[in-house]
Structures are given as C-alpha cells and as structure tokens.
Amino acid sequence: MKLVQERRTEINGHPIIAFTLANDHGMEITCLNYGCMITSILVPDKNGNYENVVLAFDEFSSYLTNRPYLGTVIGRVAGRIKNSCFELNRKKYKLYENENKNHLHGGKKGFHHVIWQAAGFSKKEEVGVRFLHRSVDGEEGYPGNVDVQVTYTLNNQNELIISYHAISDQDTPLTLTNHTYFNLSGNAQRDILQHELKIKSDRFLPLDHEFIPTGEIKDVAGTPFDLRQGKTLKEVINSTDPQICFVGHGYDHPFVLNAHYEEEIVLFDPKSGRTLVVETDEPGVVVYTGNHLPNGEKMNGVLSRKYLGICLETQALPDAVHHPHFPSCILRAGEVYSSTTKYAFRVSYE
C-alpha cells in the first residue's frame, strides 16, 4: 500500500493537496482536499491496461466553477430542494437559490467548493484520506453547526469505500453523496452508451419539469426504469418515454433500492471488460447519465460532451423535506449521521 501527497496549487493562500492512494495490485485513486474531489481512478481492463475510469478536468482552474460537480462530495443536501425552502420544528428556512428558484447540491459553495482539512493514513491492507469540515450555522441558509468527516479508503480487493459521518448541534437536513462521473472505457475514449446498468430497484421517482420529484413513487415494471435485468444506456436514451425525454434523453432520476450490500448497482462495459459494483446503506441512488454535460471543456484529454460519464449518487431521496412519505433526511441535534458506499472494480475476461 502506498500514499503520496503532492501540492498542486493554492487558493487564496490555502494549499491544494493531491493525495494518491495505491494498493498492492496497481489500482490508484487520486483525490484533492478541494471539494474532496476524485480526479483519477486507475484500474485494469481485460488486457491489463490501467486507465482512468472517472471524468476529470485537464486544468485545475475549471474546478473553480465546476458546473458538472465532477468528482465532488455534495452537501449539506444532495439533489434539489423545491423553492429553496423548508420548514423544520415550526420554523421556516430559506436556502440559497442556485438553480432558478430552487436549491441544488448544497447551494453556491456547498461542500464542493470547500478546502477540507485532510490527512492521509496507511495500514497493511488499506490506505486512505480523512477529510474534515465544519459547516457553520446559517451556511447556505441551513440551521446548526455541523461537523463532517468523509473518509476515502482503498483496499487490496480493488474497492474504494467512502464513509460519511456528521454531527450537528441543531436539527438540520443532511444527506451526502459523491458526484463522480464514471466511464469504464478508460481515459474517456468512448462514451457510456454501450455500458450496461443493472439496479435492484422496483420503484423510481418521477420528476416534474424542474427535475424535482413529484412525490409519486412509481413501479418500474413496463418502463425504461426497469433495470432489474439490466439495460444498455443506449437503449434508455433512445426511449420515447416522457420522463426520459424532458431531462435531456437519459436518466436524472432517483431509484429506490430493494437491497443493500448485495451488489445492488452494477455498471459494466463489455468492450473493456471492466465492471463497477456499488453497494450502499442509503435508501436510494440518483442515476444521471450526463445528459447536460457541457460541450467543449477539456476532460481526460478529450472535449466533453453528452453521455461522456454516468453518476451513481447514493443518497436519501431528493426533496425529502417536502415529502413526509419519503425516508427522513433530518439529522437530529446530537445524533450521528453515518453512511457508507463501496465501489468495487472487477474485470471480466470473456
């Protein structure tokens, strides 16, 4: 196991540090203390070629805006909150509006533009980084001081484990996720349309025209959202289903998971042979097929475009603050928020 730290640049006098984690089999992960951004995951294909399977900007300056939220930790609340407001304990709170009248991915700065405190660690069978941040009372409009810890751990089973912990001194909404875009072709040499996606989910959440859940929880049977036996992403984007079309011809939807830590999310690229298995204790996953990735930005040595990557955002269901029948996303004062998602990388040689 190996851990390397490298100073990349600085922001307002604060150093931006890259941490590269390597296991004994050649898998490497690079992440930054800025936004906890994952910029590289090197894993082998069926021919033994190690290539980057996540999207990353070629120039660090692009991360200062980072419209697609590449590789970041999202908080305090992942996803959209309708009308940028909620009521809690008979008090109304107004959040920062950063997508029309709605609040998206924690607001203007959120957790994705934070320079986190970070420290690497190395053990016999694992290596990793712990990130710390205090989100102060009133930040982006949220109540309470929240102490957040995010840990990235790489082990010798070619697994990345992301653990989230938080505690608040007031009741507050909180659900964290990672917004990495995966492309198993390696170095973004192809788009994701030939990738196959399988999810153990019987239900999904339809969206309104602002991409916010309507409150309905719908059966996937007979819809393009039935991924229980798997589908190619090309099959999905070619669907004429209105839910697929109005979000940009693809997914930008929450799925309710049937299982946890049972290979509930599987992404496979037949040409490279790479497989990503995602397991989590979260109630859902938001699948986003990069329908609105910007054109012409330099990523992985190529120009960005639609469908260059897919996000698998394990989290509580979006806009849960407005839907009491969704699992609650409220962290009560003094209680501990704890969540873990595992990303296992495998290779098929068929």
TrEMBL record:
Pfam families: Aldose_epim. GO terms for biological process: galactose catabolic process via UDP-galactose, Leloir pathway; glucose metabolic process. Keywords: Carbohydrate metabolism, Isomerase. It catalyses: alpha-D-glucose = beta-D-glucose. GO terms for molecular function: aldose 1-epimerase activity; carbohydrate binding. InterPro entries: Aldose_1-epimerase, Aldose_1/G6P_1-epimerase, Gal_mutarotase_sf_dom, Galactose_mutarotase-like, GH-type_carb-bd. GO terms for cellular component: cytoplasm. NCBIfam families: PRK11055.1 (NF008277). Belongs to the aldose epimerase family. This is Aldose 1-epimerase. The lineage of its organism: Bacteria, Bacillati, Bacillota, Bacilli, Bacillales.
